Amino acid sequence: MLARLRHRLADQRGFTIVEVMLTCVLTLIVTGTSLAVLDRAYRHNAEVQQRTESLQTARATVDDLVRRLRSQVCLNSTTPPVVAASGQSVTFYSDYSDAVPTAYPERHVISLNPTTGVLTDARYTSTTGLVDSYTLRDTRLIARNVSQVGTTPLLQFYGYDTATPPTAARALNTSTVAVASDELANVARIVVTLSARAGGKSAAKTASAAQDEVFVRLTNPNSSDPSPRCTA
User: Of 1, 111, 117, 176, which residue has the fewest beta carbons closer than 10 angstroms?
Assistant: First the structure.
């Protein structure tokens, strides 16, 4: 019996304390590395989703603006479609009356608040159609978390140049200067450029930009002096 017990106590099989500690350390290193990789992959996936959401918001906002700007009409024979324009705001007349003869065009003021990132459309209506008779009806939210892209203004306005044939490439405004009053009647093309962020997100790296343009329908590009023509 004592010989058998002595033999068991002298058995060399098993792990030493050094081997156990080394195994624990290696296990912690592998586990920590794996968790770090998983965390990075999770955060990267979240950023990709936010960028996708931002791109969808930017694209939808640009499409909305272009749709609204395409509805431009003349108020009368002396008032062009666009009556005020700058890099962050545009005032124009549009007609959503579905050919109702007693309705007058609406006046819309689309503007971006650079501090809050809120893009709105203020709608004015009139019962007489006179320029000074328009009153604010409502203000509609277009989008939130919107900003201009770098130094490029939200709205860029162009008129036709003197080339042969003429092209709508003559810039009428910059990011800080509005379109001059005597140039408003020459607005033929409007370029919309903006950056949008996913709702509630503030990280600039998840923002996405989109751009589109619209031509004023009342401009005949085949004319030797193309500019909006308003008729009574």
Answer: 1
